[in-house]
Design brief:
Blueprint (H helix, E strand, L loop, with lengths): L7 H4 L9 H30 L15 H12 L4 H15 L4 H24 L9 H29 L8 H27 L8 H24 L15 H32 L4 H4 L4 H50 L2 H8 L6 E14 L2 H5 L4 H21 L3 E6 L2 E6 L8 H23 L5 E15 L5 E5 L1 H11 L6 E3 L1 H7 L3 E11 L3 E11 L8 H4 L1
Helix pairs in contact: 2-3, 2-4, 3-5, 3-7, 4-5, 5-6, 6-7, 7-9, 7-11, 8-9, 9-11, 14-15
């Protein structure tokens, strides 16, 4: 699988490339404009940070957002935009006037390498910007935070030492401050920007929107109290910074990754502002400003990791529940393909043995004449395809008439009316089914240019129905009614519908019949049977739609 250049390759639709000279020139102009805009954005972000004056003897900013900005540009837009980071960093350092040209070039190279390394590692690791998996949280922490920041801190402090801005004795503490400030910036901005880039779904209900507003307001007030106001009160005797954790965790649980991102930005903004302004719980119990900065940065890392892990765990749990629901629906649908819906529901409720007696149902057996001989003329695939086509047509007819297919046996088809839910017109519905089956087989013969015919047998009477088996379920019928219906089919004639006396009595008011006379039926002796021909007057309650 080739490595994608940016995550927009996934988020945006693909377009067919146009290789004209004008198109290539326009594309080049757009690329240069994008480079300029991203470079300006980088410079403006640096200048915005510099507007917050450090107080209390602080030597470095506790949070460095440009480290996150540069990686986000390359991650979302593409690695080819690395010149924007180099240009923005170079211009911002040159105009600051605090470094020489060589130092500025080294700084710009350092910032560009950090962004390239982090973005390349994330893309290589198939990082998902939706942050909906614990795996992605781990990739963000290691590939976007720890490793690129370590590279940047190492090059940066060595550059400072070589330029005599610090001594080698200060290298360890300076490296740690540099490293964790870049890590903190990545941890804060990445979730917020990625939540916007992936277009998280808005809150659907007014109630959830109201809860979100109240939660944001409450978190802001609590953060302001903890990080700004409480330290100015003489009654503040204990560190209060972890009072915000319950609200942060609740937002991550309730609103997912967008909630976690909002909580991270709000809480850390107040915390960082307090340290920059020389107030807050981190300075209250620190003997030196550097200790306060490290305490703040450690707090940010713990807060961010906690919020992201909670949000990702919640997302994974919801995804697992959705997958479980989909699999449950699939299994239920598969069960419904085997069993009638009321029986499947009872089986899922684990009612035990399912067996019911029905005083009156109508059973139909149909068999395709000479299909065994036809099977010797067709390949196995063609045979199965042909059977599936005709039986699928019968399934559709059974559903239209409100009947229940029981099973197929070879080229025989069995269907019943009047169960598992009782209906008074089961015999009429079965008669309509039989006539439609004859029409269907004629159309099937015409389509395949083969003389297909059927024998159909129908009987009406009591049956026992139930579920057999523990692994391969089957809903089946038992009783003389079923046996006699099978005999009606086997002793019938091609193209005819043979019915018993009981079925004839139920249908004689609406259908025309021809008495066949007495025939020998295995196990029952002589029985009078009838050939059903057609309807002899309009039906009032005989179609499935009217019956339903």
């Amino acid at each position: 699988m080739p490595l994608r250049d940016s995550w927009l390759d996934v988020l945006r639709p693909r377009r067919r490339p146009v290789f004209s000279q004008a198109s290539r020139q326009l594309k080049g102009v757009k690329y240069l404009i994008a480079i300029a805009l991203f470079a300006i954005g980088y410079g403006l972000l640096v200048q915005l940070i510099y507007r917050f004056q450090l107080q209390g003897g602080l030597q470095a900013y506790p949070i460095w957002p440009p480290a996150a900005y540069s990686q986000l540009v390359l991650l979302l837009m593409g690695l080819k935009f690395w010149p924007a980071i180099a240009l923005g960093s170079l211009v911002s350092t040159v105009f600051s006037g605090e470094q020489t040209t060589l130092e500025s070039l080294i700084s710009a190279t350092n910032n560009t390498l950090q962004a390239l390394l982090g973005s390349w590692l994330l893309l290589r690791g198939n990082f998902s910007p939706r942050l909906d998996r614990l795996r992605d949280i781990g990739l963000l922490i290691i590939f976007a935070g720890i490793l690129p920041a370590a590279l940047s801190a190492t090059i940066g402090v060595l550059n400072c030492c070589c330029c005599e801005e610090m001594t080698f004795a200060e290298l360890g503490s300076a490296w740690l401050t540099w490293w964790i400030s870049n890590v903190s910036g990545v941890f804060i901005l990445f979730p917020a920007v990625l939540a916007i880039a992936t277009r998280s779904q808005p809150l659907q209900t007014v109630q959830r929107r109201l809860f979100a507003v109240l939660w944001v307001v409450g978190l802001c007030l609590l953060s302001w109290f903890v990080f700004v106001l409480a330290s100015q009160m003489e009654t503040s005797l204990f560190p209060l910074e972890y009072l915000t954790f319950p609200m942060v965790a609740w937002g991550a649980l309730r609103f997912g990754m967008p909630g976690a991102a909002i909580a991270i930005v709000l809480t850390t903004s107040f915390a960082g502002l307090g340290v920059i302004q020389n107030v807050g719980p981190f300075l209250q119990f620190a003997s030196r400003p550097e200790q306060a900065v490290l305490a703040l940065q450690a707090y940010i890392c713990v807060l961010v990791i906690t919020a992201l892990v909670i949000a990702a765990t919640t997302a994974e749990r919801e995804k697992a529940q959705q997958d479980l629901q989909v699999e449950k629906e699939k299994s239920e649908q598969l069960l419904l393909n085997i069993l009638p819906q009321p029986i499947a529901s009872r089986l899922m409720r684990k009612e035990g043995t399912i067996a019911d007696h029905f005083a009156g149902v109508t059973v139909l057996f149909a068999d395709i004449v000479n299909f065994t001989q036809l099977s010797t003329e067709l390949s196995p695939q063609d045979l199965v395809i042909m059977l599936n086509e005709i039986f699928s047509t019968f399934d559709t007819l059974a559903e239209e008439h409100g009947l229940e297919k029981i099973k197929t046996i070879g080229d025989a088809y069995m269907v019943v009316g009047g169960l598992p839910e009782h209906r008074h017109d089961h015999a009429t519905a079965m008669a309509e089914m039989a006539l439609d089956m004859q029409k269907a087989i004629v159309a099937f013969s015409y389509k395949h240019k083969r003389p297909f015919t059927m024998r159909v047998g129908i009987n009406t009477g009591p049956v026992v129905a139930g579920v057999i088996g523990h692994k391969k379920f089957i809903y089946d019928l038992w009783g003389d009614t079923v046996n006699i219906a099978s005999r009606m089919e086997s002793t019938g004639a091609a193209g005819e519908i043979q019915v018993t006396q009981s079925t004839y009595e139920a249908l004689k008011q609406h259908y025309t019949f021809e008495c066949r006379g007495e025939i020998a039926v295995k196990g029952k002796g002589m029985m009078t049977t009838y050939w059903m021909r057609d309807r002899h007057k309009p039906l009032l309650e005989l179609t499935p739609k009217l019956a339903s």
